[in-house]
Amino acid sequence: MTIAKAYAAQNATAALGPFSFERRDVGADDVQIDIMFCGVCHSDLHQARNDWKNSIYPMVPGHEIVGRASKVGSGVKDIKEGDLVAVGCLIDSCSTCSECKDGFEQFCQGGMIPTYNSYEKDGKTLAQGGYSDIIVVKRGFVLKVPGNLDPAAAAPLLCAGITTYSPLKHWGAGPGKKVGIVGLGGLGHMGVKFARAFGAQVAVFTTSPSKKDDAIRLGAHEVIMSKDPDDMKTHLGSFDFILDTVSAPHDLNAFLPLLKRDGTITLVGVPDSDHPPVAPFNLIFGRKSIAGSLIGGIAETQEMLDFCGKHNIVSDIEMINIQDIEAAYKRMAKSDVKYRFVIDMKSLAA
Ligand code: NAP
Ligand code: ZN
Distance between CA 15 and CA 62 in Å, rounded? Predict the structure, then answer.
């Protein structure tokens, strides 16, 4: 047993503060990781504040974890002490159901175990996330980080990266396809980078005029102001695929007419309440689809990291100390993120 230092939310309204708890000893199939960096996802804010009405406290958020393997179980042959490794949004699953066997651990029929805000398989140990100095995770849920990537800027790949990579690949973003990314935040800016790397024509839909230049720098070919009906109208019927990363409720009816026949808008954002109703006419005319996507499986997450290593793709980050987490949450709530906060975990010792 090791005592981990961390920052935790004690309830939905209190500021996060220092906290310590026990991490299990390293079992034969486990890897212990000294956490160097942890990205700050909007899901951390949603869950710390109980937006989704399922929060368990005390809660140590954080599921974009990068660090060094510091102890390796006797049964782990392909990771050694000192390796640069990572943990994303899930730490366990049943491994026997058809979803797990097909590499979709995130859809495990027995219930996947998220990295925090959940109980581990024993049903009583609270899973605690990456705003901490150490974590112990089964080898099967540990990822390897390509050595050429900056470890801090690679951390957001573990959630923002895979959550955009997976649907863009699944729905065929690539040469000859026009792809829209709605919301230029942590997920959105990774979506732009991947859609561009896959060879698609990329447009960003934003509510923030100040992000226009950044959108182009990040790889977008064009920027559309989603609250300007005239700007939206010039793109009617032109998109093959739209990936919606927005963290707040908004009107999907504004985007459906912009899809081509058989086009799809896929939701990855999880607001604290539902979007306004969708008008059936907006789907019927043009045989359009609304879909959803949840992170990605472990093998696909490793594939995404390897793709990033090959193409030198990382997140644009703003490094913070753990003591600044509340200020970062406030800015995130105002869409003022450029484009992912990452916590330097050395600051826990301060
Ligand atoms: P983020 O960095 O805060 O970015 C969200 C962006 O949405 C903002 O930067 C803003 O972009 C836009 N936005 C915010 N409020 C808006 C509003 N009222 N109307 C229109 N646009 C608005 O958040 P994130 O970390 O990327 O996460 C985004 C969402 O995805 C969250 O709900 C999160 O919980 C969810 N998520 C889902 C998965 C999954 O597996 N499905 C995984 C991770 C996260 P502009 O300034 O450009 O308008
Ligand atoms: Zn996340």
Answer: 15
- Tell me, yes or no, whether 61 lies in a domain: yes
The domain that holds 155 is classified in CATH as 3.90.180.10
Q: What is the pLDDT of residue 350?
A: 85
Mutational test site, ligand 1, from 40, 42, 329, 336, max ligand atoms within 8 Å of CB: 42
Whose CA is closest to atom 1 on ligand 1?
185
Choosing from 246, 320, 331 the residue with most ligand 1 atoms within 8 A of its CB, the one to mutate for a pocket test is 246
CA of 281 to the centre of ligand 2 (A): 33
3-state class (DSSP) for residue 151:
helix
Helix (H) or strand (E) holding 304: helix 298-311
Does one domain contain both 189 and 287? yes
User: Do 198 and 130 belong together in one domain?
Assistant: no
From the CA of 170, how far away is ligand 1's center (Å)?
A: 20
User: CA dist 331 to 144, 324, 334, 335, 340, Å?
Assistant: 31, 11, 5, 6, 11
Question: pTM of the full predicted structure?
Answer: 0.98
Find the domain containing 195 and state its range. Answer: 161-292
Return the pLDDT at 241.
99
Indicate if the alpha-carbon torsion angle 343, 344, 345, 348 is positive or negative: negative
Residue 10 shares a structural domain with residue 141 = yes
* pLDDT tens by residue, 61-91: 999 999 999 999 999 999 999 999 999 999 9
Query: 188 and 131 in one domain?
Result: no
Residue at a domain's end among 257, 277, 292: 292
- Which of the residues in the chain have pLDDT under 50? none
**pLDDT for 267:** 98
